[in-house]
From TrEMBL, chains A, B, C, D:
GO molecular function, one term: FMN binding
Name listed for the protein in its UniProt record: Chorismate synthase
Uppermost EC category: lyase
Gene3D superfamilies assigned to the protein according to its UniProt record, in alphabetical order: Chorismate synthase AroC (3.60.150.10)
Purpose of the protein: This reaction introduces a second double bond into the aromatic ring system.
Record gene name: aroC
Species this chain originates from: Candidatus Pullilachnospira stercoravium
BP GO annotations: amino acid biosynthetic process; aromatic amino acid family biosynthetic process; chorismate biosynthetic process
Free-text cofactor note: Reduced FMN (FMNH(2)).
Pathway: Metabolic intermediate biosynthesis; chorismate biosynthesis; chorismate from D-erythrose 4-phosphate and phosphoenolpyruvate: step 7/7
Pfam families with a match to the protein in the record: Chorismate_synt
The protein's Enzyme Commission number: 4.2.3.5
Amino acid sequence: MAGSSFGNIFRITTWGESHGAGVGVVVDGCPAGLSLSEEDIQVYLNRRKPGQSRFSTPRKEDDCVEILSGIFEGKTTGTPISLLVRNTSQRSRDYSEIASYYRPGHADYTFDAKYGFRDYRGGGRSSGRETIGRVAAGAIAARLLNEVGISLCAYTRSIGPVAIDSFDPEECDRNPLCMPDAQAAERAGAYLRELMKEKNSSGGVVECVVQGLPAGLGDPVFEKLDANLAKAILSIGAVKGFEMGDGMAAAQATGLANNDSFVPGPNGTVTKATNHAGGVLGGISDGSPLIFRAAVKPTSSIAASQQTVNQSGEPITISVKGRHDPVIVPRAVVVVECMAALVLADALLSAMTCRMEYVKKIWQK
Amino acid sequence: MAGSSFGNIFRITTWGESHGAGVGVVVDGCPAGLSLSEEDIQVYLNRRKPGQSRFSTPRKEDDCVEILSGIFEGKTTGTPISLLVRNTSQRSRDYSEIASYYRPGHADYTFDAKYGFRDYRGGGRSSGRETIGRVAAGAIAARLLNEVGISLCAYTRSIGPVAIDSFDPEECDRNPLCMPDAQAAERAGAYLRELMKEKNSSGGVVECVVQGLPAGLGDPVFEKLDANLAKAILSIGAVKGFEMGDGMAAAQATGLANNDSFVPGPNGTVTKATNHAGGVLGGISDGSPLIFRAAVKPTSSIAASQQTVNQSGEPITISVKGRHDPVIVPRAVVVVECMAALVLADALLSAMTCRMEYVKKIWQK
Amino acid sequence: MAGSSFGNIFRITTWGESHGAGVGVVVDGCPAGLSLSEEDIQVYLNRRKPGQSRFSTPRKEDDCVEILSGIFEGKTTGTPISLLVRNTSQRSRDYSEIASYYRPGHADYTFDAKYGFRDYRGGGRSSGRETIGRVAAGAIAARLLNEVGISLCAYTRSIGPVAIDSFDPEECDRNPLCMPDAQAAERAGAYLRELMKEKNSSGGVVECVVQGLPAGLGDPVFEKLDANLAKAILSIGAVKGFEMGDGMAAAQATGLANNDSFVPGPNGTVTKATNHAGGVLGGISDGSPLIFRAAVKPTSSIAASQQTVNQSGEPITISVKGRHDPVIVPRAVVVVECMAALVLADALLSAMTCRMEYVKKIWQK
Amino acid sequence: MAGSSFGNIFRITTWGESHGAGVGVVVDGCPAGLSLSEEDIQVYLNRRKPGQSRFSTPRKEDDCVEILSGIFEGKTTGTPISLLVRNTSQRSRDYSEIASYYRPGHADYTFDAKYGFRDYRGGGRSSGRETIGRVAAGAIAARLLNEVGISLCAYTRSIGPVAIDSFDPEECDRNPLCMPDAQAAERAGAYLRELMKEKNSSGGVVECVVQGLPAGLGDPVFEKLDANLAKAILSIGAVKGFEMGDGMAAAQATGLANNDSFVPGPNGTVTKATNHAGGVLGGISDGSPLIFRAAVKPTSSIAASQQTVNQSGEPITISVKGRHDPVIVPRAVVVVECMAALVLADALLSAMTCRMEYVKKIWQK
């Protein structure tokens, strides 16, 4: 199945494995006339780079993006934008061991079950490097959204049991865990150091807030804005849960507590007194900030010894070698933000075609 | 945007509003040669019918399905199966009041924001009746899955604060709340009676388990099995959260606790000692039971008085008239099960094309 | 495969067989606010009705359309428009003979080869009645296009060897062959009468001209306007050839003769001195009238005796019973026009999303 | 609009302009386990290379393909295959002149009309170089088809008024016009030399024959095999007409002459006495060879002087500079063959999902 594309009008197609020639993405359907440079994209790629703190892998990956097509004189032309990031740090390392057994929590077994064999080097297509294409494409989507006043901000909400108590967006850039609360970041750091001693790892929660979104994006049935966000977020490896607004807690709430009252907004607009819904009603944005969360499971690659089977089905004990992040949440933050940007750019373009009034605005002579 | 279709190979298109001539669905891409009758579908529709207990609305809706095409001599022909359910209980009720304001928790405001106006009668396209098409189509998908040994079972896991403690699948049919635990059902019933006195409503959680799924379904990147399930489930009105396996709890777990060890299974197969993952690794089914949950928000239509604004933006106090379910979870159960069946039928057909070995099995002379 | 949908943004899904309960179509993605009644659609359906002349079958088919959803207070709501036409003239006729052999020129054999069995009654899904859904949907697309000044006109260009010499659009409605040349229509009528004596049939050419199309519709690569028109037209049963502008003749032309010079148009516009291209350059409309042709093969069902095989593979001689049109070209005219309308409506909506300038026009606050 | 993808299950996405960094394609949905090397693809790319005869441009373009992903140990892995061809012969040539006016027969004007501006260097996305991605992808599709006994052969059927009289497939490789008739090739060569003296160009017809195709590929309604072939072929720049089997001539035929009788074939199979249909009935392959033709217009870039307008709309006289092929038909041959291969690979995979019998063959334990 052709499963590497995402989006309808603003559509991306990612490709590439951990140990092939490179990874990349083709962005098709981006409107003409958006100013764009490699630097605009590189800024986002740098946010997902490893090797920036003791909690991320010390691998050196430059991940320099090259724009291969679709830009002319600094602007998008409306034709596909092809982006390439070469794999530079391919080690001559021996992968024969990893080839012979199934790592718990990884897709080794399921790739064999699906395709009959697998590219076992570094996770192949299931490698975290696959997200490079998402982030590079998401950077373009975010730029498009910015042009009409929409901005996204994702951050680490919790790591293991340690959650934020306060919110200072600028703090996100100051601590390696991307938490908007310095004290929580410190506690989370201590928690991770303990786990590292045990050769263990931690999960966490990424939260994303979108400001400036007009009411009216998303569709009432299958293409609900929240449904597409859920797919986008669950399509990121290691994500196990998705919450819109109050999320799972809504299941324990009552209607009186959960309903958001509409109230008069500034300049004759309509707004909501609360935002339990997280900015979407009936699948369509309601003009309030969009709020959603992703639960990220603990890093599967741990140095502690684990039970598994080899390809002959015999039980063995392994410990996953190499340096791995004790938590992938901070690196997932920009991926979550970018996937959301892709969903919203697509919804924004799509909503342009939903009224005869708009059709006439563009086409009537 | 054309947002009323779901699925790629096994694809459905639903249509219809609460107060139009009817609701329906076209199922396209169903393989030829599946035996199918109206009765097979009606059984599923009956499960979502209201009026079956004191906790669901006493509206009389027969919801009799008519197969309009795609079946010949009791079998699918491979061409589109069109299903129609006429709206029979259209009341002459006056909707002019509801037309004039925005009900909290409903899509009234967002429809106006998106389309410029709305069919305000009974929620229009956002009505719960829209799920009839999903359930009718899902019944066909479930039948297809059954043919190769795959079965689905959804049930109410919790209502408000009351969760199940035990699991007896047959109990689901015995209590009106569709809970597999008779005692929990009784406690939940008491809880709901209290809320009804307050003209209030409750949310809850639906859980779904799939047995017999082969390993190898789903795709590694955007078409991950869990990503498509998340979209399917969040596309159901009132769902605010989705969890795969351990779900949100995985964010608080450690790698050692969360990783599922592979162990030798019967007859040389590979299986897992635990199933924190919920049956999917790297987006592909791993042969364990699939387990996921949906958080359903409390019924938005409550008789208690609420604040909102009218279409002129002026604040008003309303109380939603009519009889409404104090909880929609029991009726959502079959919808969740059917949406999952649609995702799985599509993934099953899709996975037939992923290996040259399969291509040769079908086409080599 | 889900093969009964057409279009991306303005997307239709047709369903139904000759002898099932009915035929129909779901139109998804039509913008909200287009005024639409059953009468608007019925006018188009009446154009494809048989029984209007001696050259079309005397079957009585009322083909009354019912709008099941998507319209409120006389306007489209932006949600799916479901249209139903009941099959009223189902004869109790015995189809057991037709079930046993393969009619030359028909899809009996290929349906068996594909699906393993077939609904043999009246051609099943391959019946000409399948076009009812296309025409009903096309009527809506045409209405949308009219709102921004685009109009379509298809007609019979030739029947067998008899081609038109002059062009009077009003004449199309005056003769049963839908030819814009009364004298040609008379000659073609004489030709057909001769064929009918021989229990034979004739092919012909349908031509379609689109006026008022803005330059800039269509995409430069796979979604070229002419590529989508070609698919649309070849998807009509019995069509064997497609020509854009000069079509096949362009292959015999030279560059000097075939290139259309650009010349200054009225009010500072750019136009072309000639229109060999048929209104499209590089897959994108150029502002000139769109002109294309469809070659329709002779009616396959003929009363003359023919050789074929039965389902056991034994050679037999048959003559197809029932009354059949000696030429289907006049009835194909409205189908061609409607398929073109569907392609253009989709391209019109799609092109709204191709420039940042348009994005800002709709979304900038 | 995202218009650079083609196919559903076997889907390609092309990107790249004449004067950007390169051109390429992502092939998604190719089954795992197909052996594939860069050499397999290069062989096809070499067939479309210019500079091989006096009738094609003397530009030096190496067009060496690099496989960036999707292959492991010489076999496809089932994940996207990304192919890159760098643009090596980018000239420092001054394009300011071409930037200022609209070349007749080219997409300069329509790109401006659509996007508001254009990459004017060498035709940008409308350059013939865009076909590199199609050919590279088509090479993979052809390899897949070969594995189950399906082979394609395209060739030049006519150039201007000179058509082939005989058919010797091996002759195609011996003359630079790719004609299967040495004498016709000689006459066509003489015709082209005359046109070159006049700074003029010629069109022609490409024909393609597919052998070994099983009956049963293609869908009965919109995804007819011939409809998808028509789209594929019309999506190639410069193609103005498409014929399936007898094509346009079918419009002048009678039913008795045009119907192909079914006759008993070898080993109890069913075959046809003639093949006017070109191997497809009701949109589904009938087991006979598939035969179709594409009409290619004359090269638009001619050195003879022509009238046009500049971007200010003023009339000017131009003559297109640079060396251009007097006929592009021979280079289009491999592009036609490759587009057909893409359609057929997609149809082959799609048809695997159309019967419950096949579903059980793959999935029943």
